[in-house]
Design brief:
By secondary structure, this protein is of the alpha+beta class. It has 10 helices and 10 strands. It folds into 3 domains: 39-146, 2-Layer Sandwich (Beta-Lactamase); 227-291; 299-452, Heat Shock Protein 90, CATH 3.30.565.10.
């Protein structure tokens, strides 16, 4: 169903309104012009009234004979029938009125009336005597030279050509502003991207539109922000990676120049190569997670079972006993996510907690359900961080020197964890708990398969 703010309705209303406007204008203005062109102009009326004044003067001075002479002279001046009648339509001169003329006399018009152009013959006019209208009147056929509508062709050009053309031009301007201007802005933004001007944005009025072009503009701006952020992240990663690589390379140079024991040199080279390999792999993984936007396969995951798998490796790597890695999440905690990505995120968070915990410290995983989500948290005993650094710890290569115990790292673990959590529809943030730093996750709930009468999910197996 078309949205009520869609471009279809805007164009429909505009075009229908334009058509109705043109029909109304053509009808009303056309009738007005036709009516105005049907009346005699003022010079013609003055000439006809002067004829009536002459006829009255001839009748007063010469009577019937005078009118006969004047009518004879009028026939030489004007073509058509001319007569002088009284108020009862009887002739005041010597003329004889036949049946055809009497029929015409029943359809006389005044000089101020519209002249019909439907009849073949010229209309007949009645012009009362100026001095004594009740005594007589001049009746004559309208001379063709007095016919109204001399500018009829010009008015038709104006009415049927110029005025509709102007309104059509206004319609084109409106359509241009509605359709072409936003498309030109999109083209300019695309050209700006091609020129590496990733900060270019569309006009706020275009983004605020409630139609398809507004949605396209907002998508363009979101794509520009995404592209700008990705490029900025890639550049920052390259700068940070080059900076981080200098330390192991410097140690390798010192070892090569100063070590005399071949065995110790091999061990040093192995450690530094492993360090650089881990650094490159973590950096590439973070860059891949930021650039990868393919749909992720989601599945039901039991958090408690996943924790049991992770603490085996963590205990082996760190030398911690499994009793120091406490899980307080209920057994019915099932989330909807991607097993490998969630395991990687939780493993990075667990390693970070172990690294920054004091001797004989504990790491706890807890959680509670909040509507359609599970709120999970991983808390260590490291004393926490400053409030202003709670968000900075998720930045790539960010290390808070001296703020927490531990031997540090590359500063990529929490960045990778946040990216992995966000890609499966969750969120990850940090806050200070009672004992130390608390990393909080919010993941969608998955209803247990057993509660719906379906087979239980298969055993967790990380790939």
């Amino acid at each position: 169903m078309l949205d009520r703010h869609s471009l279809f309705w805007k164009l429909s209303i505009l075009l229908v309104g334009f058509c109705l406007l043109m029909i109304g204008l053509s009808y009303t203005w056309g009738r007005h012009v036709e009516t105005q062109n049907a009346f005699l102009d003022e010079p013609a009326r003055q000439v006809l009234r002067s004829y009536a004044s002459e006829a009255e003067q001839a009748w007063r001075t010469g009577g019937r004979e005078g009118l006969d002479r004047w009518v004879t002279a009028m026939h030489q001046r004007e073509h058509g029938w001319v007569g002088v009648l009284d108020s009862s339509l009887r002739p005041l001169d010597s003329a004889t009125l036949g049946p055809e003329i009497m029929q015409r006399l029943t359809r006389l018009r005044g000089v101020d009336w519209p002249m019909s152009r439907r009849s073949i013959d010229q209309p007949w006019l009645r012009i009362p005597f100026p001095g004594a209208p009740e005594q007589g009147m001049l009746v004559m056929q309208l001379p063709q030279r007095f016919n109204p509508g001399h500018y009829r062709l010009l008015w038709r050009v104006v009415t049927n050509g110029i005025i509709p053309g102007l309104f059509t031009l206004l319609l084109c301007v409106g359509l241009y502003r509605m359709l072409i201007v936003p498309l030109n802005q999109l083209r300019e933004q695309a050209n700006a991207w091609r020129a590496d001007q990733l900060s270019a944005r569309l006009d706020s009025r275009t983004i605020a539109r409630h139609d398809e072009l507004g949605e396209l503009a907002r998508a363009f701006d979101q794509m520009a922000e995404r592209l700008q952020g990705t490029v900025a992240l890639q550049q920052q990663l390259l700068r940070d990676l080059s900076h981080e690589m200098r330390t192991p390379l410097s140690r390798l140079r010192v070892a090569c120049d100063g070590e005399t024991d071949l065995q110790r040199l091999r061990e040093r080279l192995g450690r530094e190569v492993d360090c650089m390999q881990q650094l490159v792999e973590d950096t590439l993984q973070l860059a891949w997670q930021d650039a990868e936007r393919a749909p992720m396969n989601l599945e039901p995951i039991q958090v408690q079972a996943l924790w049991d798998l992770l603490i085996e490796n963590a205990s082996y790597e760190s030398g911690w006993g499994v009793e120091r890695l406490i899980c307080e999440v209920p057994g019915d905690c099932w989330v909807q996510g991607n097993l490998n990505h969630l395991a990687q995120a939780l493993e990075n968070m667990l390693r970070n907690a172990i690294r920054h915990s004091p001797e004989n410290g504990l790491v706890r995983l807890g959680g509670q359900r909040e509507g359609g989500y599970w709120h999970l948290w991983l808390e260590d005993d490291g004393g926490g961080v400053d409030e202003e650094d709670l968000e900075r710890i998720f930045a790539p290569f960010s290390r808070l020197d001296g703020s927490r115990p531990g031997d540090g790292g590359f500063g990529l673990g929490l960045s990778i964890a946040r990216s992995a959590i966000q890609r499966q529809g969750g969120t990850l943030w940090a806050e200070n708990g009672k004992r130390g730093l608390r990393l909080c996750m919010r993941l969608p709930v998955h209803v247990s398969a057993s509660s719906r009468g379906k087979p239980a999910p298969t055993e967790l197996q990380l790939t």
